[in-house]
Structure formats: C-alpha cells, structure tokens
C-alpha cells in the first residue's frame, strides 16, 4: 500500500499521482470523513469540482489533515474544476478564489475547465450543485464566450501563482487540437470518461503525443450512473464480463481492481471513490501484480463506445456528436 506512482506533468514537471480519490457524488455529510480516511490510506490526490457541491466539507478535511499531521500540503495534489456558468473571463478568477476559500488552500495543483460549454452566468449562491441552468430559467441558456477567452483567464491564474497546472475535461479531439494552436500555457491534463466500454484510444493517444497526461473518470462505466441515466440500467454490468471475472480469479483480485489496473498500467490516472473502507483500500492495492499485454488488449476489446456522461442526453448540448 506504500506505492504511489506518479506521472510528471508538462510543462511544469510537477508529479501527479496516478491514483487519486474522486469526490463526485459524495454527499456533503460524508465528504469530510471520506477525505480523511483516504489520506490515511495513502491517497495523495483529491479530485474536486465546484459543481460537486462539497468543496467546503473537503476543505474542513484538508485543514484537519494538515493540523493533525496526517499529511503536509506539499505532499498532496488537489484538483478542482471551473464550472460552465463561470466561463466569462471576469468570472474565472472569482470562481477559482471561491474554490480556494472553500478548500482552505493557498493554491491548487491543477485547475480544469470542467466542460467545453459556456452557460449564462448564475450567482454561485443561487445555484445548486449539478444544475445546468439558472433556477429561474425554463431552459439551459448558453453564453457567447469562446474557449480561447476562458483559457487566457486560466493562464492568468498560473501567472498569479494561484495554480500550478491547468487543463481540460470532457474535450473532444477537435477542441483539443484547436486549444493547442493558441495556448500560451499548454494544458497539462485531459480528464475524460474512460472505461473498458469507452476506451477513446485515438483521443488518448493523441493527447499523450501532445504531452498531456490523461485522467480517466467513471472507470466502472454504467455502475456510476444507474439511477439517473436511463440507458445505464440496460447496459451489461462491467464486472460481470467474462474476461474481467476470469482475470479477477487468476490474480485473486476484485473485478474493480482489474479494471483500475488496466487503466494505470496504460498510464491513465484514475480517481475512483468508495464510501466502503475495504473497497477504498482495495482501489489503491493494485501494484502487486501486472496484466500481460494480451490481457490488457482483451479488456480493451470490450470497447463499445458506450458513454454515460453525455450532455447531449441530459442537457441537449451534443458536444460529443
């Protein structure tokens, strides 16, 4: 459990842990304890977002961890994300400073554009976590803010010493190519939905070829979405796939550990979460075995381009079409 491999980010050279704990869908009343437990188990990356609505509780946990000597600030890597309603340059720093205050930190290690979608500004105090529209509007309202303006404001956060690395999330290949043409400070990380059902190999390979590290979220595919994405219920459970079950038996590991190993062995960072202590510990315990290239290929062959976090389905914003 002591192993904590990292990947060096470009252009800064800062090390980012390959295994972190994600905070999406973590209830507010569970967030503080989960972060403390994860840090005690050896996690050194915490993946947050203002949209998750639990950054204040995470901040309480981080302060407690520092005060009690569980970790030092310089020994952990904290990520957060700019929400869609704050894309206008005049709102980027405001949103960032709110996140910084909530997390009780002086700087972030990584700040991502959460989606390549600019929405009408909404006062953060008036917006509930996960909402894609102004509560007073009947429909989602976009805003005419091009990504290059938002990115320039992100770069200014680096210039001000507020964040060490900046990056993007949920961008497709075309938008990444465009961003690389004008970025003064290149994106360090691309965070995408990534599972054996959605390998996105061409995008992953292109991002790596351009010097970006890749973080995959929702590695367990539909398991994270059953209950609010209709087609998640209809998809076969990833852990029931014969190849996953076979490898779990061969290596005496859980199906989840096999899937996570498939990610990190291919140099894709992961941010799984669990409210269960044993599973939280298991998610890090994946460095005492190696899958063969053939086994990696067999898992990748499950790809069905099956995406669940698609704003085209739940917000009528077809960014992946």
Automatic annotation (TrEMBL):
The record marks 81 as: Lowers pKa of active site Tyr. The active site is at 52 (proton donor). Residues 21-303 form the NADP-dependent oxidoreductase domain. It comes from the Eukaryota. SUPFAM superfamilies: NAD(P)-linked oxidoreductase. The keyword Oxidoreductase applies. InterPro entries: AKR, Aldo/ket_reductase_CS, NAD(P)_OxRdtase_dom_sf, NADP_OxRdtase_dom. The keyword Oxidoreductase applies. One of its GO terms (molecular function) is oxidoreductase activity. Pfam families: Aldo_ket_red (PF00248). Substrate binds at residue 114. Keywords: Oxidoreductase. Belongs to the aldo/keto reductase family. This is Aldo/keto reductase. It comes from Rhizophagus clarus.
